[in-house]
Design goal:
Layout (H helix, E strand, L loop, with lengths): L10 H16 L3 H17 L4 H22 L12 H13 L7 H21 L3 H14 L4 H17 L3 H20 L5 H17 L2 H5 L13 H12 L35 H29 L22 H27 L28 H4 L4 H10 L17 H13 L2 E4 L16 E4 H32 L16
Parallel strand pairs: 1-2
Helix pairs in contact: 1-2, 1-3, 2-3, 3-4, 3-5, 4-5, 5-6, 5-7, 6-7, 7-8, 7-9, 8-9, 12-13, 12-17, 13-17, 15-17
Length: 503
C-alpha cells in the first residue's frame, strides 16, 4: 500500500492553482510556475481526477508551461531548440484538455474556447500558422464573438498574408484579417494590452490598403455551375474540410477557391539549370491530390456499402475477428501510404534547396533538421537556424507531430505520433488487419499477434489527420521557398525571365 497524504481535488484547490499560475506569470516568477507544473503533474499521479478536475488541471498545466516558455525561451532562435520542453509540453497539455469529455458542458465549452485560442497562439509563434488559424476558428465555433480569438486570428492572417507570393491572395486574406481585427477591438472581453496590439495591426493594414478597399467585400461567380454533379460533390467536400492546396481555403469556403493553385514562386537559378524544383513539387502535389481523391472514393464506397466487381470470386478465409477486405479498403491503405511518403519527398526537397548536405539514405522528414546524431543528442543544423525563415520553422514544428525511430528521444507534440509511424511502417513492411471493431488482445482469444490491428474508425481518423498535416507541409514548403527567394535576390548580374507554361 502506498503511504502518504492524499489531497482531495476540489474547487478551492483548483482556483488556488489557477491564481498561483497567473500571479507567478505577472511577477515573472519562474520558480513558482515550475512548482505549479510539478504540483499538477503529481496530482495526476496520486489522484484520479474526475472529468471537471481533469479539464481544469490540463488547462492550467498548459498555461503554466506556456508562461514558462515565454519567460525562459525568448522568441526567435530559441524556437529552433530541438527539445523546447516548455513549448512542446504546453501544446500537449492544451491538446489533452480539448480531448476531455467533461460532465459540465458549459464549463467544457468555456475552457475549450480558451484552450483552442491559446493553442492557436502557441502554433502561430512556432510558424504553424495554418494549424493556428484552424484552432482559432474552432474557438469561434464555440462562441463566435470571443474577442481574443477574433483578434489573434486577425493578427495571424496578417502574418500569413505577408508570406504569400500571390498579391491577390494576400489582399483577400488581409480583408478577412481586417474584419476580425475590427470585431476584436470593439469586444468587451479583450484586455487593454491585446486591444492595443490588435489596433496596431488594423492600422498597419490601413497603411497598406485603403479602409474602403478592405471593407469592399468581393463577390465571385459560382464556378460549380459549369461542372458535373459528381465533381461538384467532390470539390464541396474538399472545400468544407479545407483540403485544397490553396491558402485561401484556410479561411474561404466558396467555389472560387476550389482549386489546387499553390506552386513554387519564381526561383532564381544559374543559366542552363533545369527547373528541377518545380518538377519535384509537381510530383509532391500530384501525389497529394491523388491520395486525397482516393480517400474520398473510399468514403463514397463506404456510403454505398457494396463490394467492387474486382472483389468478386476472390477466395478469402474468415479469421473470426471481423476483418474488412475489399477494394475500398485498399483505397484507404494506399491513400495513407502515399500521404506519409510525401513527407520524405519534402525532406529531400529541403535538403537540396537549402543545401543541407545530408546523404540521401539519411534523409527523412524527422531528421532533416539535425546534425548527425551523437549519443542520443541532436542539435539543429547551424545553417537552418541562420535562415530566419518562418514557414521553414513551421515545417520544423510540424515534424514534431511525427515520430522517428532513429531519433526516438526527441519530444513529440502529437500523442498519435508513434502510432502514425507504426501504422505506416506496418503497411509498407508487415501485415495490417483492418477490423470492424477495436479488438483488445487481453479479451480476444483469436487476437492475431502477427498483425497490426486497427479498427476502421481509427484508421479513418488517422488518415484524415494525415491529409491535413501533409497539406500544411506542402503549403509551408512553397512559402519557405518564397521567403528564401525574396531575401536572396541577386544584387548584380542580369536576370532573364523564363516563362514556364502550365500543363
Amino acid at each position: 500500500m502506498k503511504l502518504g497524504i492524499r489531497m482531495r481535488i476540489d474547487g478551492l484547490m483548483l482556483n488556488a492553482i489557477s491564481k498561483q499560475i497567473d500571479t507567478a506569470f505577472d511577477e515573472k516568477d519562474e520558480s513558482t510556475l515550475q512548482k505549479s507544473v510539478d504540483e499538477i503533474n503529481q496530482l495526476f499521479i496520486d489522484e484520479n481526477p474526475n472529468s471537471i478536475s481533469e479539464l481544469i488541471l490540463y488547462y492550467n498545466l498548459g498555461n503554466a508551461y506556456s508562461y514558462l516558455d515565454s519567460l525562459r525561451n525568448h522568441r526567435g532562435i530559441s524556437l529552433w531548440f530541438y527539445n523546447n520542453t516548455e513549448h512542446i509540453n504546453a501544446i500537449k497539455s492544451y491538446r489533452k484538455c480539448i480531448q476531455v469529455n467533461c460532465s459540465d458542458k458549459k464549463l467544457q465549452n468555456d475552457i475549450f474556447m480558451q484552450s483552442y485560442t491559446n493553442l492557436g497562439n502557441m502554433f502561430s509563434e512556432s510558424g504553424r500558422i495554418i494549424y493556428a488559424i484552424n484552432s482559432w476558428q474552432k474557438a469561434l465555433g464555440i462562441f463566435q464573438n470571443f474577442g481574443m480569438a477574433q483578434g489573434n486570428l486577425g493578427v495571424g492572417l496578417v502574418e500569413y498574408a505577408k508570406t504569400l507570393y500571390d498579391n491577390n491572395h494576400a489582399f483577400l486574406i488581409s480583408q478577412k484579417a481586417y474584419t476580425f481585427l475590427k470585431k476584436a477591438i470593439e469586444s468587451v472581453d479583450v484586455y487593454k494590452e491585446a486591444k492595443t496590439q490588435f489596433l496596431s495591426y488594423k492600422e498597419l493594414l490601413e497603411s497598406r490598403f485603403s479602409a474602403e478597399s478592405l471593407n469592399d467585400e468581393k463577390h465571385f461567380p459560382n464556378y460549380f455551375e459549369a461542372i458535373s454533379q459528381q465533381e461538384m460533390q467532390y470539390r464541396k467536400w474538399v472545400l468544407k474540410n479545407s483540403l485544397f492546396l490553396n491558402p485561401l481555403n484556410d479561411i474561404y469556403y466558396d467555389s472560387f477557391v476550389a482549386h489546387d493553385i499553390i506552386h513554387l514562386p519564381s526561383i532564381t537559378t544559374s543559366i542552363y539549370e533545369p527547373p528541377k524544383y518545380h518538377g519535384l513539387f509537381n510530383e509532391i502535389k500530384q501525389q497529394y491530390v491523388s491520395a486525397r481523391y482516393m480517400y474520398y472514393l473510399y468514403l463514397k464506397q463506404e456510403d454505398n456499402c457494396g463490394k467492387d466487381f474486382s472483389d468478386k470470386e476472390n477466395l478469402l478465409i474468415d479469421t473470426l475477428d471481423y476483418t474488412l477486405y475489399g477494394y475500398k479498403y485498399e483505397l484507404l491503405r494506399t491513400s495513407y501510404k502515399n500521404l506519409y511518403s510525401i513527407l520524405d519527398k519534402i525532406a529531400f526537397f529541403i535538403n537540396e534547396y537549402f543545401e543541407l548536405n545530408h546523404t540521401e539514405r539519411t534523409i527523412s522528414f524527422n531528421t532533416i533538421w539535425y546534425e548527425e546524431k551523437k549519443k542520443n543528442k541532436a542539435s539543429i543544423k547551424t545553417k537552418i537556424e541562420s535562415l530566419e525563415n518562418n514557414p521553414l520553422r513551421g515545417l520544423y514544428y510540424l515534424s514534431k507531430d511525427f515520430y522517428s525511430y532513429d531519433f526516438e528521444y526527441l519530444n513529440v507534440t502529437d500523442e498519435d505520433a508513434q502510432e502514425l509511424a507504426d501504422l505506416r511502417n506496418c503497411l509498407e513492411h508487415r501485415y495490417v488487419k483492418i477490423t470492424q471493431y477495436k479488438n483488445n488482445p487481453a479479451e480476444t482469444e483469436c487476437y492475431d499477434v502477427f498483425a497490426y490491428q486497427i479498427a476502421i474508425d481509427e484508421f479513418k481518423r488517422k488518415t484524415e489527420k494525415l491529409l491535413h498535416y501533409v497539406r500544411e507541409a506542402i503549403i509551408y514548403l512553397s512559402l519557405a521557398v518564397h521567403t528564401s527567394e525574396r531575401k536572396n535576390l541577386p544584387t548584380d548580374g542580369k536576370i532573364v525571365p523564363i516563362i514556364m507554361r502550365k500543363i
